[in-house]
Design goal:
alpha/beta, nine-stranded mixed beta sheet, 14 helices, 31% helix, Rossmann fold
């Protein structure tokens, strides 16, 4: 019943928010660094992947790191960043950081767990602060919806989701090949992510959450949970383990989907699906993600573009059909390593197979470029392939330049929002182990009230309700 109550709550706040005009205070708070200035960047999340983001921003030479914030500022994984920026102000609570330094901050990077992106983003946009947030944007469909609405209302604020491939070779190649008519009439995409995941070694018969453990003295556990308040601390919830649990993360789909499907989703104008099918889930349970998943997303015709089916495969031995002439599945050396260490090659490395009326393409993850299957077909078309421009900026520089008005952010919430919502729908199918129809206009799951309630998730914990307004 709390889920159904929150559904009504969020719908009402979204409708009310949709009618709000920007206040003069909010307008005055909009900030943009001038072309000859560095962007003053605050960073929420300091260790693991968040630390890599901070280093990538710093390497651009386009920003000043002016504040660091983490719920466990003295944890071992935070020490490298703290040593790199010893004189930068430090905070444990992002709200305190914004209250004390909001007027000195141009932009913020958010490298926290999926579920924690929402409130930080909403508060930053309210303050006129530009936002770079890791993928996926949030862990529930309606949180993504409200973030997108907020960015649309405060349209002087620059937003960017952290799917780096959107500023690398695949982005510009896909765009050029589509404009030249090489990629056209796509009807099917098989996306696959078959690397080992943290939960693959867990017992699928687990009947509850892990036993409570002593909370580290340096960690603010309630703040770590944010609007998901109600869980007892356990080490298997933090430091990347959160991705395993339905309550906190979005599994392999939320982790890798944006790195594999982002260009196809944008340039094929896929939007939202009309049906999501749980085709096969191995070792399904109610707490953490299956050992392997096969999902089907059905996208309808769009203008002059045909309907498209996306088939998603994850799990160590769960592979799509491999077309004749596919060749070798190489692991792109440019894929960033996870916080747990080096990426290991799999039987079939992360990527996609794109089927069109006349051609079949294969591609990897992140910025990996496409190639035409087979080699003979590729040679036949070689002279027709257009020149592909080099990226003028990587994803981090693109965001900072957009903050300064020099470029347009390539993965703004308008683009990244619907993509993130596709993954939210897929996670609902994984969680419930069932298929459903979806109305992309009303943004509702059809004839399934319980599944529809999961678009909103549980009611936010006390003290976090204020962020659910546009």
């Amino acid at each position: 019943m709390t889920q159904l109550t929150r559904r009504n709550f969020l719908r009402n706040t979204a409708m009310v928010g949709g009618g709000l005009l920007l206040s003069q205070t909010a307008l005055a708070g909009m900030k943009r660094a001038s072309a000859n200035e560095r962007v003053n960047l605050a960073c929420i999340g300091v260790g693991n992947r968040a630390g890599e983001i901070i280093k990538d921003f710093h390497k651009t030479g386009l920003c000043n790191i002016v504040a660091l914030c983490d719920v466990d500022m003295n944890a071992p994984h935070t020490l490298e960043i703290l040593s790199l920026f010893p004189d930068v102000p430090r905070f444990q609570d992002f709200r305190t950081m914004f209250d004390k330094m909001g007027s000195q901050i141009d932009a913020v990077s958010i490298g926290t767990p999926d579920f924690a992106h929402f409130a930080m983003t909403m508060m930053a946009i309210d303050l006129g602060i530009h936002v770079y947030v890791e993928k996926p944007m949030a862990s529930t469909f309606w949180e993504v919806e409200l973030m997108t609405q907020k960015a649309r209302k405060f349209n002087k604020v620059v937003t960017q989701m952290g799917n780096q491939g959107h500023s690398e070779a695949n982005y510009f190649q896909f765009k050029a090949w589509q404009e030249a008519g090489i990629i056209k009439d796509v009807t099917r995409i098989d996306a696959h992510m078959n690397l080992a995941r943290r939960w693959h070694t867990w017992d699928a018969g687990i009947k509850g959450f892990p036993y409570p453990e002593r909370i580290p003295s340096t960690l603010d556990w309630d703040l770590w949970q944010m609007q998901t308040l109600g869980h007892d601390y356990n080490k298997d919830f933090i430091n990347g383990q959160w991705r395993c649990w339905f309550d906190f993360g979005m599994g392999a789909l939320g982790d890798w989907g944006a790195h594999i499907l982002d260009t196809a989703h944008e340039f094929l104008e896929l939007g939202l699906p009309t049906r999501v099918e749980a085709v096969k889930l191995l070792a399904h349970n109610s707490y953490f993600f299956p050992k392997s998943s096969t999902l089907k997303f059905r996208f309808p015709k769009r203008k002059n573009l045909p309907a498209v089916d996306i088939n998603w495969y994850d799990g160590l031995d769960n592979f799509p059909e491999i077309p004749a002439g596919y060749g070798v599945s190489g692991l792109d050396p440019n894929i960033p390593a996870p916080s747990t260490g080096k990426i290991e090659a799999a039987k079939l490395n992360p990527g996609k197979i794109i089927y069109s009326k006349d051609l079949i393409f294969k591609g990897g993850s992140h910025g990996s470029t496409l190639s035409i299957i087979s080699e003979e077909k590729a040679k036949e078309l070689e002279k027709r392939l257009p020149t592909v421009i080099e990226s003028p900026s990587n994803h981090f520089a693109n965001f900072l330049k957009a903050c300064k008005g020099e470029e347009k952010a390539r993965s703004s919430f308008e683009i990244a929002g619907p993509l993130s919502q596709v993954f939210c729908l897929g996670v609902i199918a994984q969680r419930l182990n069932r298929s459903f129809d979806f109305d992309p206009v009303k943004k509702e799951i059809v004839n399934d009230p319980f599944a529809n309630a999961l678009l909103y998730g549980p009611a936010p914990g006390k003290g976090w309700e204020q962020y659910y307004k546009v």
